From TrEMBL:
Keywords: Repeat
Calcium keyword on record: no
Record protein name field: Rab family GTPase
Gene source species: Hondaea fermentalgiana
InterPro entries linked to this entry: COR-A (IPR032171), P-loop_NTPase (IPR027417), TIR_dom (IPR000157), Toll_tir_struct_dom_sf (IPR035897), WH-like_DNA-bd_sf (IPR036388)
Alphabetized Gene3D superfamilies for the sequence: P-loop containing nucleotide triphosphate hydrolases (3.40.50.300), ROC domain from the Parkinson's disease-associated leucine-rich repeat kinase 2 (3.30.70.1390), Toll/interleukin-1 receptor homology (TIR) domain (3.40.50.10140), Winged helix-like DNA-binding domain superfamily/Winged helix DNA-binding domain (1.10.10.10)
Coiled-coil region: none
Domain COR: 264-399
TIR domain location: 618-712
A GO biological-process term: signal transduction
Pfam families: COR-A, Roc, TIR_2
Length: 757
């Protein structure tokens, strides 16, 4: 491509498709189905010919250019078929269709061979800090090749700033795609082209860029450098020839490039891409998958292509599951309309529609405090797929509910939904916040310490977002948090605390008069673990406790737990001093701070009377195969809260049918736990019994898409017996929650429904 004199900065993420031969942008996406189908057909015909004729013992070698010489884009594919590894008659598209239908070739799989052309989708991530929160969503483990571009002039003149920038990106890639190859590309070669400058850059990278350790770095072998110097403005066609060769060579070694893929899957994706839609309902994909005999693999194939970055499909909620984004750029552009830097937000500010729709105050609220009204989001997204986009941002913890009144909005819209966009908190300023934190009389204090690796940009904002949502739930809209980019004051009912980001640490300081401070700390740690597991699952961290009597003494939480269990009086601190174990007792007044799934502290017991003839409050019906862990946990927590629970904790089939039916008859209500295989075992009989007995039926479903029991609701509805399908219309299913800060509300609601059943 020719250099562009005036460069416009990327907004969010920009996608381009190219190949390793022309390196020109490809406008028409190609799934690769035709290329692989030709290859499979040609190979099969070659085998048939070899079997039929023993005379062909010596065959000429394949054309060296492989796929690049044999296959063209869609327009010429029918006239230029594929040449296989052995010399065979060319197989045109029509011949493939005539001889091999989709069902027949479905068990074959395409595999990229040596010499075939490699196609790339280039994800150009914006460098502005406000967009960093979006990047981690799309840095998948399947990854690909990461190219980190830096200005060599800056590295030589503003070394600290440049190294910080490179370290951030290197650490981000190591966290999300630890096995991915990385290339460093230094720009402005024309400005620093002498050998002395290049060696100075090399020395700085190798000696001072500590984040390079543990990275799969692709080196510039031809120039014996750790990076690839590029003259951005050179008109020479070969200005990046070494870089291109390195990318091609590295890509050819990627597992995802040579991985075998079912031709059925490729055909489904091929037909989807030809629709030329930004997004389609899941039902459309299911229909195509059924057509090509892959209907039982729809979720699996979507997950595979999602990991490759070809499409976007999430499963956490019905709204997300029902939408398959075929054009990721559409989604990225929508997100960038909300998460925009000052330059691009300026375009929105001068849009006349903002004035015509009377949304100028809404836009100011978003930019100043990170709070978005529903009406503003509808405008920013042109009223297109608003529910899906809200769910997507919520699922990626880019957005949370803001359940506090905002008086700056017009009176007629003050009751509409509001959302906190966490990554925009960098813009938020509150002069009172620093004063209030400084004046706070601090009590129990702990630290989330990320010094072992690093604290990724966006973790703190996500914690604030989740804290604000939880605060709104428990405070019923009173006591709004004070939030800024790196500090906040939040209230959980009668507990007030400050959060401060400092380097690679997050300080949590409870007010001295906080009600049940240990319980609030436990909830906070659970909120952090939820945010971490959502986007930063492999991020290492430690929980440190500050001595209540000496704020210079810090102790690792795990060390303190071990010391308490061993009955020790002293424990080693983080520094050179020892700490007194009894002084840390207030941290354990409400059980373990790292508790999440299991209750270790006291819980309130319920007193729910049972009518004559009833022995149990609830019969918990589930499939042990994929919901045993969840239901055993639920039974334990309900029992601890004073309820009598009937549950088959043995391997399915060990209890007699009459014993199960008796358990249902003796229960106040029947809880159906929905999981992927729920209707494949004894649950059908149990459910029919509950319906015949007229038992109140409550429905709970697996809510974690990473659990083996997770499935979408359409799967439950399709698999349910005809006599029970009405339940999905009449009953509101409750999402099962494991996280402490979510589980409290879940069990309160579940017990209330049992009580009122």
């Amino acid at each position: 491509m020719a250099p562009v004199a005036e460069h416009l900065s990327t907004v969010g993420v920009k996608l381009k498709r190219t190949d390793a031969e022309s390196w020109e942008e490809i406008k028409n996406l190609d799934s690769g189905f035709e290329r692989q189908a030709y290859r499979v057909a040609a190979l099969r015909m070659a085998v048939q010919e070899q079997t039929a004729s023993k005379k062909r013992q010596s065959l000429p070698r394949p054309v060296s250019r492989g796929l690049s010489s044999a296959v063209r884009q869609h327009s010429s594919a029918a006239t230029q078929p594929f040449v296989a590894e052995v010399q065979v008659d060319l197989v045109p598209e029509a011949e493939v269709a005539r001889r091999f239908d989709i069902e027949e070739i479905g068990n074959m799989a395409g595999k990229t061979q040596s010499g075939q052309k490699i196609y790339f989708t280039i994800w150009d991530y914006a460098g502005q800090e406000v967009f960093y929160a979006m990047h981690h969503i799309f840095l998948t483990r399947e990854g690909g090749i990461f190219m980190l571009v830096f200005d060599m002039q800056e590295l030589l003149t503003k070394q600290e700033q440049a190294l910080k920038y490179l370290s951030f990106w290197l650490n981000s890639v190591k966290l999300h795609a630890p096995k991915a190859p990385i290339l460093l590309v230094g720009t402005h070669y024309d400005q620093v082209s002498n050998q002395g400058n290049l060696q100075a850059v090399e020395t700085t990278l190798r000696n001072d860029l500590k984040a390079l350790r543990g990275v799969k770095l692709i080196k510039n072998q031809e120039q014996t450098l750790s990076f690839f110097p590029i003259d951005n403005m050179s008109p020479a066609a070969d200005r990046a020839i070494e870089l291109r060769r390195a990318v091609e060579k590295s890509a050819s070694k990627l597992e995802s490039v040579s991985q075998k893929i079912s031709l059925r899957w490729l055909k489904v994706i091929d037909d989807l891409l030809k629709l030329d839609y930004n997004h389609v309902p899941f039902a459309t994909v299911q229909e195509l998958a059924d057509k090509y005999h892959a209907g039982d693999q729809t979720d699996e194939l979507l997950k595979f292509f999602h990991e490759l970055g070809m499409l976007v499909h999430l499963r956490a909620t019905d709204t997300l599951h029902d939408k398959v984004v075929l054009n990721p750029q559409w989604l990225l552009d929508k997100l960038a309309r909300v998460i925009a830097d000052e330059i691009h937000a300026n375009d929105i500010y001068f849009d006349e529609r903002l004035f015509d729709l009377e949304l100028e105050d809404d836009f100011a609220l978003l930019r100043d405090k990170g709070i978005a009204s529903r009406a503003l989001l509808q405008y920013l997204w042109n009223d297109e797929e608003v529910d899906y986009l809200v769910e997507f941002m919520r699922g990626a913890t880019l957005l949370s509910n803001w359940n506090f009144p905002e008086r700056s909005l017009p009176r007629q819209r003050q009751d509409e939904p509001l959302y906190l966009v966490s990554s925009l908190l960098k813009n938020s300023t509150d002069s009172r916040l620093d004063v209030d934190i400084a004046d706070m009389d601090t009590g129990l204090t702990c630290i989330l310490d990320f010094s072992e690796f690093f604290l990724p940009n966006g973790v703190f904002a996500r914690i604030l977002s989740l804290c604000a949502q939880y605060s709104g739930d428990v405070n019923k809209g009173k006591g709004a948090p004070q939030l800024a980019g790196d500090r906040a004051i939040v209230r959980f009912d009668l507990s007030v605390f400050a959060l401060v980001e400092d380097g690679n640490k997050i300080w949590v300081r409870m007010a001295r008069d906080a009600h049940k401070p240990a319980a609030s700390l436990k909830t906070l740690v659970s909120i952090f673990r939820g945010a971490r597991d959502a986007m930063f699952r492999d991020l290492p961290w430690e929980l440190l406790l500050q001595s209540p009597s000496d704020d210079s003494v810090l102790v690792r939480y795990n060390d303190m737990v071990e010391a308490r269990e061993a009955g020790k009086r002293l424990v080693m601190s983080v520094g050179t001093r020892n700490a007194k174990v009894p002084e840390f007792a207030p941290f354990f007044e409400d059980g373990s701070l790292t508790e999440d799934e299991v209750d270790t502290g006291a819980v309130e017991k319920e007193n729910i009377p049972l009518a004559a003839g009833l022995e149990y409050h609830v019969f918990l019906s589930h499939r042990q195969y994929d919901a045993g862990d969840a239901c055993n946990l639920m039974a334990e927590k309900l029992r601890k809260r004073g309820l009598h629970v009937w549950i088959d904790q043995e391997t399915e089939g060990n209890l007699a049918e009459d014993a199960m039916k008796r358990g249902i008859r003796e229960s106040k209500c029947y809880v159906l736990f929905l999981s992927k295989t729920v209707f494949e075992g004894a649950v059908r009989m149990e459910l029919e019994t509950a319906l015949e007995e007229g038992k109140p039926i409550l429905v709970v479903h697996e809510s974690d898409p990473n659990r083996p029991g997770f499935a979408n609701f359409s799967a439950y509805i399709n698999a349910a017996p005809a006599s029970a399908k009405h339940l999905f219309k009449e009953k509101e299913s409750m999402p099962f929650q494991r996280r402490l800060y979510l589980a409290k509300a879940f069990y309160e609601e579940l017990i209330a429904r049992i009580k009122n059943a």
